[in-house]
Here is the input.
Amino acid sequence: LSLPRTPFVFILRAMQEDEITMIYGDDPKQMTDTLLGAIHVERLIPDQGMRVILKPNLVVPATADGGATTHPEIVVSLIEYLQAHGFSNLLIAESAWVGARTDEGFDVNGYREISRKYQVPLLDVKQDAYQTVQSQGITMQISKTVMEPSFLISLPVLKGHCQTRMTCALKNMKGCLSDRSKRMFHSLGLMKPIAALNAARHADLVIVDSICGDLDFEEGGNPVQTGRMFAARDSVLCDAFGASLLGFSVSDIPYIKLAEAYGVGSADLSRLHLTELNHPKTEITARPSGAVAPLARHTCPKDACSACYGNLIHALKRMDEDGKDLPDAVCIGQGYRGVTDSGKTGVGSCTRGLGKSLPGCPPTAKAMVDFLS
Here is the structure.
């Protein structure tokens, strides 16, 4: 995947529909502060008096380090930024999956204290009134509050999913439904319902927590450190890009193209303008565990940054799922700069001196899948 990139440049105007802005790091609060200043969120919201809804992912009562839920520091940064720019009508809204309690997710992640400190109410969508909506032939119950005039900022975690393969902006909207509609979505196979939901109500801005999303399960437990966040206005373009970071093609995630067909946005990555505010510089010492460990045995990291290494883990997972032979040892990391060895294979620009090497800093997981295959 080759994308037009504009590194190290802060956007001096409001973010456009065909843009994604990326930042790398290991401090969610600092990363969000920088990202918000770069995209000028205040210029995207039509009216200072408009209600701004922050919609994190709290699918289960678990902390963000497990790869399932949104880092609360991102929410704090957003609240501070918006309040500093004169926006006071803020609301945090979410609904855990069927069988879990949203209030437990609020408690585990410190949202009660955030609400008290910043005077921002919490809405458990399970307790809200619902508006019955018809979209693309599907009848669904959506939070009445979410359907009222507001500016909706979605804060999904980019991670694997046991049924839809991945979840990001489009699927994060499922937390705005009644439990009854969530059950119905599963009975219909999720793909068309997710796209139809977004045709009825989609996010106005998406800020993606891609710091340590889970390898393949929405409930977490096998986080993959990638140390990045990105912002987008187009949920479809956001998910198409997110799919490439996890090693998928857009065609692997049917609800993306369906949402495009329903007029939600564009899945055409050739029109994407990617701005990277910095380079991934965080060096990691790989100590993989759980489902990640068997994949890591096929890597040879030396001073690898988390974004590049995380992409490689996702690429190996996709290959394994597809029944492809995994390479014996893929070199990756800054420790290979200047190393020449015709018998080795590497990914990332740092390995350019090896016999076979995939350029990119970092290359996407999808590019790695194609290269290694």
